[in-house]
Each structure stands twice: as C-alpha cells, then as structure tokens.
Amino acid sequence: MGGRRAADGPSRAGVPGALMTVAGRTTVTLRSGTGDVRTGRPVPPNGLVRIGSTTKAFVATVVLQLVGEGRVRLDAPVERYLPGVVRGRGGDGRRITVRQLLQHTSGLPDPGTLLPQGREWADQRFRHHDRDELIRYALTLEPTSGPWSYTNTGYLLLGKLIEQVTGAPSWRDEVQRRIVRPLGLRHTYSPDPREYRIRGAHPRGYIRAPDLIDVTEQDTGHMDAAGDMVSTPAEIDRFFGALLRGRLLRPAELAEMSRMVPARGAVDEYGLGLEINHLSCGDLVGHSGQMHGYSMLAGVLVGRGGRAGPAFVLSITTEPADMDDFRRVMRVAETALCAPTGS
C-alpha cells in the first residue's frame, strides 16, 4: 500500500492537516500538515475530529438492529412511528417509508438553506438550531426531484424514530449502548447541547471564506443524528470493520443495508446508511462525512470477490471546495489501498 505518499497528498494540495489510518493485519496511522496553522503545532496522533455525515452509518445501524428485533419495519410508513410529524409541502409520512429515509429516496428536501454559509456562518457558528426547527423548515420547501437525493432531513427524523421506538431520551443513548460501548470506542461521542469544544487532543478545523477561518469550536445542534458525532480515525476504522464483518447486524439486516441504488455527486452507490465508492482494486464501502471545518472518507475495501479487506479512514481539517477537491481525496484512498506495497 502507498501509505506515506497517500498521507502527504492532502497537505500538498493545500489542506491544513490530515490524519489517515489503514487497518488490516496491522494498523498504519499517518498524519501530515499542521494541526494549528496559527502555532504550527503538529497534527496530534489519532486526534479527535468531527465526523459529519459518517454519523449516519451509526444511526442506520441502530435502526437496522431495531428491524432485526422486530420493532421497526423497513417498508412501513414513517407515520407509524412518528404520527403527524411528516406533513407539509416537502413530504407526507403516510407515503414515505423508513427504508426511503435511510436511503435518501424519500424526496424530502434538505434544511440547509436555513443556515448561512461561508464567513457569515463562521460569525454565527454558536447560534443554536434544534432538530425540530430544521424538520419543520424542510417541510415548507418543495420536494426534491429524481429517484435519489441526499438529504439530512431523513436522518434527523430517524433520530426521532429511534427515540420513539426505544423510549430512550436521545438517539445518542442507543448509539452508545448498542455500538460505542460494545466496541470499546472510548473517544467516540455526540456533543451535549451547546457543547462547543472537542473533548480531547484534536487538530483545528477550518473553512475557506476565501482565507482560512478557524471554526473548531461551534454549535453542532443543526447536525444532530445527521452528523454531529466526534471520533478518531482508528475508532471509525474499528466501527466499519465490525459492521462489515457482521459483528453489529445479523446477516439479513446487513444484506438490507448493503442493497445499493445509484447515487450521484461524490457517491457512486448508496444503501441504507452505507456508501460505495469504486476504486481500481475494489469498492470502498462505508460513509463519508463533511461539516464545517472537517471532512472524512471512511470505509472498508471490499475486493471484487466480495471479501472484506482493510478498513480505511482519511480525515482532513477543511472541506473540499468542489468536486475536483473531492476527486483529490479519492486519489488518496486509491493510492493508500490500491498502490503496490512500498510505493
């Protein structure tokens, strides 16, 4: 595998800092760039980062565990679990199924237009937006068109669904109970309401507006079950390795999770909280994440014969500016996982 050359790729492309782990028979952890552009402090080894939408894979796993327990049906209408919640211009919970929420095929619009962008967002990043506010706003918008459209609204609703079905005070409690504690993920957590700081050693996170602005401390309430978790590359490796090797779901539910539909943009195919991106030596099966200041590409390399190979996580301390930027990130995965050993 082309480890060091891959890890240095993001910093050569102008990314402030990067962390990468590849976990197979042995685990390789690499870092490059700087963890703080003001002080020049290095990226901490296996530092904590905001994982953004990689959170969706944790939430989807809990929902599919509930399916396996007979407490949720994938093809039941959302109305069964959240009566009266999904009603509006943007969609109707009597006609939208749980599967469609998980797979981004519900047609529900995304609430992102409620939030400012760029420098304006940076100036307002401690302003709190709660989940119900975002859901209500999304339902006032026009539904999306086409068979697949990525929307955070579905996962905000899935967080509510988990709470309704289990009686837990928060979906976060079920993620901790069912995934985080059994796998020993000691550094993986969801921030408490209005908790702005990252709890352990971490690289700083930046947006370009157009200069770099440090947005490490922020209110992530607007992400909720769609993307507010914090973890380390090594623990995300452990999560996807356990998930894809059947430690968290029974075969029937893992098979449902892995049934893909064509996606678009930065994703080749999408299942139930799982993404596929095609590489020359197989498929990276996992879930990427992006939020203000941090981006993550994560998953397990599945070879052409269907065998799970090494787990891979790359986290960078800014967001891809466009698809060209994202393709550069994918080239890092290609180099790390598909290049001959020693290259």
Structural class: alpha+beta
Residues in helix, %: 25-40%
Annotation, overall tally of beta strands: 15
- In this structure, how is the largest beta sheet organized? 9 strands, antiparallel
Low-confidence segments, ≥5 residues, pLDDT <50? none
- Described by the principal axes of the CA atoms, the overall outline is globular
* Pattern of helices and strands: HEEEHEEHHHHHEEEHHEEEEEEEH
Mean pLDDT: 93
Strand content: 15-25%
The Cα radius of gyration reads: 19 Å
Distance between the termini: 7 Å
Number of helices: 10
Descriptive notes:
- With 343 residues, the protein is α+β, with helices and mostly antiparallel strands.
- 30% of the residues lie in helices and 18% in strands.
- The protein is built from 10 helices and 15 strands.
- It has helices spanning 3-12, 55-68, 98-103, 118-123, 131-138, 153-166, 171-180, 233-244, 251-257, 323-338, and strands at 17-23, 27-33, 49-50, 87-88, 91-92, 206-208, 212-214, 230-231, 261-262, 269-270, 275-279, 282-286, 289-291, 294-302, 308-316.
- The strands form 4 sheets. Strands 1, 2, 9, 10, 11, 12, 13, 14 and 15 form a 9-stranded antiparallel β-sheet that branches.
- Helix 1 (3-12) runs antiparallel to helix 10, helix 2 crosses helix 6 (153-166) and helix 2 crosses helix 7 (171-180).
- The protein is globular, with a radius of gyration of 19 Å.
- The termini are close together.
- The mean pLDDT is 93.
Produce the secondary structure layout.
Layout (H helix, E strand, L loop, with lengths): L2 H10 L4 E7 L3 E7 L15 E2 L4 H14 L18 E2 L2 E2 L5 H6 L14 H6 L7 H8 L14 H14 L4 H10 L25 E3 L3 E3 L15 E2 L1 H12 L6 H7 L3 E2 L6 E2 L4 E5 L2 E5 L2 E3 L2 E9 L5 E9 L6 H16 L5
Antiparallel strand pairs: 1-2, 1-15, 3-8, 4-5, 6-7, 9-10, 10-11, 11-12, 12-14, 13-14, 14-15
Helix pairs in contact: 1-10, 2-6, 2-7, 2-9
